[in-house]
Amino acid sequence: MTLWRLLITPAARGAWNMAVDESILEHIGRGKALPTLRLYAWTPPCLSLGHAQPFADVDTARLTARGWEVVRRPTGGRAILHTDELTYSVIAPANEPRVEGSVLESYNRLAGALLRAVKSLEIPVEVKEGKADQGGTHNPVCFEVPSTYEITVNGKKLIGSAQARRKEGVLQHGSLPLTGDLTRITQALVFGDEAAREQAAKRLLERATTVESALGRRVSWETAAQAFVEAFEAQLGLRFERGELSESESRRAEALVKEKYAHPSWTERV
Q1: Under CATH, which architecture does the 2-263 domain have?
Q2: pLDDT per residue as tens digits for the range 182-200
Q3: Among the four 1, 16, 68, 190, which has the fewest Cβ within 10 Å?
């Protein structure tokens, strides 16, 4: 059994959430932190953009009117509206057996743990196989397009994940929508006209789902989090030690919020 750290952090702003993930990655790269599974949530709701996604996709007026925030992720992919969800991040050195190898190899291993977690919640899920989505046509919404090794229910995407590989190690994070209206994200993105917005909302409901929709009942954040912890331990041969951010990790996260994740030079750079 390999020892990893388990972090369960309070719901926080998007910039802080992304800064914490990067801070942990930096510390792991220096040998100052154990490989980590972090489980968290977002408040207020926050639109996150993929690393290279155009900021022009964001309808800033609608976003502001709803009191939502926007952040750019260090990982790729498309936009996600983070609300009513369980978010996970896996952060480990590149030579850690659970994440070593290619992106798809590590995705596949971690997908096994994700699959086990949601199956334990009695959701009839499967792993989407096939070609990874390369974004051939521009589509700003992440949850419309299942990629290889992502978790689906009756063909509808349930968990969206993205990964960054750096010299410090590997960061993979993803979202499990628990409840709520998935089409809310279309209110934060730019469309040619209202008909296009409505069509995007319709497509999203055809291609993505929430835990509540899949099960017909609600599952609490705490119940879903416990399912993740138990599944990662059982599937990946881990033993978790519950921990907290170190003072150094917290300080670096605060600096990254100011320098990067809450700053237009990062958020609006593309």
Answers
A1: 2-Layer Sandwich (3.30)
A2: 999 999 999 999 999 999 9
A3: 1
